Every structure is written in structure tokens, then in C-alpha cells.
Amino acid sequence: MAQRVAVVTGGMGGIGEAICMKLAAAGHKVVTTYSPGNTRSGEWLAAMKTKGYTFHAYQVDVTDFDACQQAVATIQSEVGPIDILVNNAGITKDASFKKMGKADWDAVMRTNLDSVFNMSKPVCDGMVERGWGRVINVSSVNGQKGAFGQTNYSAAKAGMHGFTKALALEVARKGVTVNTISPGYIATKMVLAVPKEVMDTKILPQIPLGRLGKPEEVGALVAFLCSEDAGYFTGANLAMNGGQHMQ
Ligand code: NDP
User: Fold this and answer.
1) How many A from CA of 51 to the centre of ligand 1?
2) Domains of the chain by start residue, with CATH
3) Given its phi and psi angles, is residue 243 left (phi above 0), alpha (psi -120 to 50 degrees) or beta?
4) How far away, in angstroms, is 210 Cα from ligand 1 center?
């Protein structure tokens, strides 16, 4: 199997870390990006090393187009041409629409949607020239079904899939596939911090499988989409939500 260079944005987060580990286990050279506000990158890299993973890490603010161009250029010269891009970085700024301020709207659109353009733009031409590439956009079940208090997040996550379909059409003949994955509730630190009573009475009853998803299940799906065997998936939106939302 060919060793590919894979870039995962927000790879030090709950889901991103699992994606990095699964891509490394699939034999890829993994580069993660981290935000300018991240003060634990060295610690994280060291902890990963003790688990047997050697990752490359570059700081970049994914909302900043010029910074993304610069980071991609540095990664390509120091690590190698990027074959796999996982647009995983994301935030929430929840509020009912009545209370949502413009700043909450802008922050979520810039981090969750503009970032997809900012990172894909400098990477895509190289994939097309080399005749192979994988772009995976990490969306959410809430982009498929909407969620109370998330007009910004649902719009950005739905927008990601529109991007996926349009770009998939443009690069299909060049050996590059573009797909979206839409996880439901995943057992990351943030979700696990929800009070037990809320989890048991409000969240779990919505999930036919009766449990949260595991970050490593998301990582495994991403690794599969990056494999040769997944070469016939493009423009798809793969739901992974325990049956919470069936289409
Ligand atoms: P985390 O908050 O753990 O990870 C998000 C990552 O995004 C962080 O590692 C952070 O980097 C990075 N990030 C945020 N803003 C910026 C920025 N401006 N520039 C660069 N990086 C940035 O969340 P999750 O792991 O839970 O989420 C990962 C993705 O999965 C998100 O897109 C989220 O919307 C999606 N998702 C999550 C679900 C869940 O249940 N957890 C369900 C469905 C979708 P750093 O750590 O370096 O600051």
C-alpha cells in the first residue's frame, strides 16, 4: 500500500486525534494542524509518541486564508505533497436564533465553512496534477437535520456538503474523491461532560443504538474513505449517528 501524506485539521481534538491514529495505523504519514490558541501541542505530540505515534504538527488558524496557504506550502516542502486532507477543525457557538449575535454566526461560518475553502484551495491542484487525492469533510448530523440553537452550526455543516458535491464533480476525472461524513453524538470530552441525567433522559433516548459513537469509529470511517477500496465513493455524505437520523 502506498504511504500517503495526510493532513488533519484540528487533529489534537477529540475526534481529530482518533482520525490521526487510524490514518497512521493505515500506514500514512500524518500531519495535524493546531490553532494559535493551543498551548498543549508539545505535550500532545509527546503523549502520542509514548503511544507509538510520530505525528508532524503545524500551527495554523484555519479561518485565515493566507495562513492556510503558507502552512500548506511549508508542509509540502517539509513533509511532502499532500494526498489526503481531512477538514475536521470546528467550533460551536450555540444560541437560539433570537439571541444569536452576528459574532457567533461569523465565528462558526469562518471556522467550520470558510476553513474548508481555505485548506482545500492550496491542496487540491496538487492532488489533481498527481492524479490521486482524498478530501474528507467532517460535518455533523445537525447539518442534515437541523438542531435547536444551531442555525449557525447547521448552516455551516450543511454548506460543507454542498461544497463536497460541487468539488467532487470538478475533480472526479482526476482521481480525486471528495466526501462528507456526518457523525452524530460522539463520546468526546465535551459530550461526556454532559450531566448524566441529561445524557440518560434527553440524549440517549434519541439514539436507537442506545449509546454514543466512539471517536475511533469516526477515525476508522475516515481511514476507509482514504483507502484504495473506497475509490468509488465521491460526493457522498456518510451518516454515522447510531440511527438517530435516518435518510
Ligand atoms: P474538538 O473541540 O475536540 O476539536 C476541534 C478542533 O478544531 C480542535 O482541535 C481545535 O484545535 C480546532 N480548531 C478550532 N478552531 C480552530 C481554528 N480557528 N484554527 C485551527 N484549528 C481550530 O471537537 P471534536 O473533536 O468534537 O470535533 C471535531 C469535528 O467533528 C468538528 O468539526 C465538529 O463539528 C465535528 N463533530 C463533532 C461531534 C461530536 O459529537 N463531538 C459530532 C458531529 C460532528 P486546537 O485543539 O489546536 O485548538
Assistant:
1) 22
2) 5-237 (3.40.50.720)
3) left
4) 24
